TrEMBL record:
Pfam families from the UniProt entry: eIF-5_eIF-2B, W2
Signal peptide: none
Stretches with biased composition (Acidic residues): 222-232
Keyword Protein biosynthesis carried by entry: yes
Keyword terms, alphabetized: GTP-binding, Initiation factor, Nucleotide-binding, Protein biosynthesis
Keyword Nucleotide-binding in annotation: yes
Residue stretches of biased makeup (Basic residues): 179-189
Protein name as catalogued: W2 domain-containing protein
């Protein structure tokens, strides 16, 4: 079934994760009994997290026709013959009024009925509460048929994990089918080339020893073509002594250079002491003059780590290869995490949350390094938002929500980081005020699951 992004404003976003199936309609009956059946209304309503009776009733109110949704069979009928494009436009209006948050546009909202019989939309992402226009005809139907209470955050997270596992199983099955197809093609090509190979072996047996030792140019070309057509080539790392030395020189960071300088300084002191005893003149070492230094007299470890990670990312390091790249660097775990976050998102001005969603696999690979690595990532986010400017600082709540939905961060570590920040020396920072809606949402979801 074809899928599309929820909301017309997000139709061009290829990375938008909230999707729903495209509407499918069918005209049934004739004359006065003609009706339009929305075939996949149940699937659309599930994607919008709204009862299918709401959308069906909304179509009837807007078109001025009778509408009916059968709970047992799941059929949605609207009297009259209506085009799919017209119903899709009405569904878009329904999404703007009763699904999307009026603040951030996120469709992950919940309908709340207040004590004064008013309808509100509470956003689970930014915490904004939107007031629904009560002049709409559908509001009276919603008040008479209130929505069921949503499940807790932990239950939704378990459902998302089950869906991810099913997708992984499907991808694994697709890869197995591709391998079987490749093996079938190779077997077919080997059967076709069988007679030709048999005749060539006879010719080689009758040829002289000189012809056997020096193959012709056409034979060499055939071998090269066979190697180029093979898709299962395994690339190996050069393990020669010269290549190993070159890699060591490339990975030599500023910290190791400092250690080398310390050892040279010690040897210089010993040489000077011996020269004083022997009465010989002092010899100046050129090593100290040749080494470049930073402005404060010592090279910046953080800047070196950021540059090395940027270089590896430009070379196309995948998320699975990032673990070995980080382990090869020198520095503490917090320094590596700070450098990784800055290398991934430095220079991003707009759409910071979208960039985080694109590169979440790198952060997930870095989090699995050791215990407590989630706190390291949270501290790196806080440090980056504190100095990067207003864009990342304003979107810190959405950043945490995105990484929480992607199973990169867990709620207990997010709350622990927030509490440590309020007690620390930087407790008056704006980042804690901006992150407060997500913390409240996590704590409320936790209390709801405990009550259930």
């Amino acid at each position: 079934m074809a899928l599309q992004n929820i909301g017309a404003s997000n139709s061009d976003d290829a990375f938008y994760r909230y999707k729903m199936p495209k509407m499918v309609t069918k005209v049934e009956g004739r004359g006065n009994g003609i009706k339009t059946n929305i075939v996949n209304m149940v699937e659309i309503a599930k994607a919008l997290a709204r009862p299918a009776s709401y959308t069906t009733k909304y179509f009837g109110c807007e078109l001025g026709a009778q509408s009916k949704f059968d709970e047992k069979t799941g059929t949605s009928l609207v009297n009259g013959s209506h085009e799919t494009a017209k119903l899709a436009g009405l569904l878009e209006n329904f999404i703007k009024k009763y699904v999307q948050c009026y603040g951030c546009g996120n469709p992950e909202t919940e309908i709340i009925i207040t004590k004064s019989q008013m309808l509100q939309l509470k956003c689970a992402a930014c915490g904004f509460v939107s007031d629904v226009d009560m002049r709409d005809k559908l509001t009276t139907f919603i008040l008479k048929n209130p929505p069921e209470s949503k499940k807790g955050a932990k239950d939704k997270k378990a459902l998302r994990r089950a869906e991810k596992e099913r997708l992984k199983e499907g991808e694994a099955a697709d890869e197995e089918l591709k391998k079987l197809k490749k093996e079938g093609k190779k077997k077919g090509s080997s059967l076709k080339d069988g007679p030709a190979k048999a005749s060539s072996t006879k010719k080689k047996a009758n040829s002289s020893d000189e012809e056997r030792m020096s193959p012709t140019h056409s034979q060499v070309d055939e071998k090269e073509e066979v190697v180029d057509d093979d898709d299962d080539v395994q690339w190996q790392t050069d393990t020669s002594l010269e290549a190993a030395r070159q890699r060591i020189q490339e990975q030599l960071s500023a910290a190791t250079a400092d250690m080398v300088m310390l050892s040279t300084e010690e040897t210089e002191k010993k040489a000077r002491a011996l020269s004083k005893e022997n009465g010989s003149p002092k010899v100046a070492s050129p090593a100290r003059e040749e080494k470049p230094k930073a402005e404060n007299g010592s090279p910046s470890t953080h800047g070196t780590l950021v540059n090395e990670l940027k270089l590896s990312l430009r070379k196309g390091v995948s998320a699975s290869q990032l673990k070995s790249t980080l382990s090869a660097l020198t520095g503490s775990a917090q320094e590596k995490m700070d450098a990784l976050f800055e290398a991934l998102f430095e220079g991003v001005a707009k759409g910071f949350v979208k960039e985080v969603a694109k590169k979440k696999n790198y952060l997930a690979a870095a989090v699995t390094q050791d215990e407590g690595s989630q706190l390291l990532l949270l501290r790196a986010i806080g440090a980056f938002c504190g100095k990067s400017g207003s864009s990342a600082m304003k979107e810190v709540a959405l950043i945490l929500k995105t990484l929480y939905d992607a199973d990169v961060l867990e709620e207990e570590y997010i709350v622990q980081w927030y509490q440590e920040g309020l007690k620390g020396s930087n407790k008056d920072s704006q980042i804690w005020k901006n992150a407060k809606p997500v913390i409240e949402w996590l704590q409320n979801a936790e209390s709801e699951t405990e009550e259930e």
